[in-house]
Design brief:
By secondary structure, the protein is of the alpha+beta class. The chain has one domain: YaeB-like fold, CATH 3.30.2310. It is about 30% helix and about 40% strand. It has helices at about 5-15, 15-20, 25-35, 85-89; strands spanning about 1-5, 35-40, 45-50, 55-65, 65-75. It has a 5-stranded mixed β-sheet with strand order 1-5-4-3-2. The longest helix has 9 residues, at about 25-35. The protein is globular and about 35 Å long.
């Protein structure tokens, strides 16, 4: 699986908040490959993964020509987007 970062996503990684929260390309790729929740009901898709004890990491991406194109990402309060998964466990 090829993962490509848009200019927006690449520039966002350089901002203060992602650096403080230790959000890296590697972490974003991990969320795409091993999410705790995938929301394909929206387009582009959203994967949610664990960032730390209090926060989740949401990654917005689309699939084109067999590549995952990362559009953006953002931290979110734990449980806000993965609540459906947590209720099933």
């Amino acid at each position: 699986m090829k993962i490509v970062f848009t200019k927006h996503a690449s520039l966002k990684l350089q901002e203060k908040e992602p650096k403080l929260l230790k959000i890296t390309r590697k972490k974003i790729i991990e969320v795409i490959k091993n999410p705790i929740e995938i929301d394909k009901s929206i387009h582009p898709h959203r994967n949610v993964g664990k960032l730390n004890q209090e926060l989740s990491l949401c990654v917005i991406y689309k699939i084109e020509n067999m590549s995952h194109i990362v559009i953006t990402f953002y931290p979110a309060e734990k449980g806000r987007y993965e609540s459906k998964v947590l209720q099933r466990r």
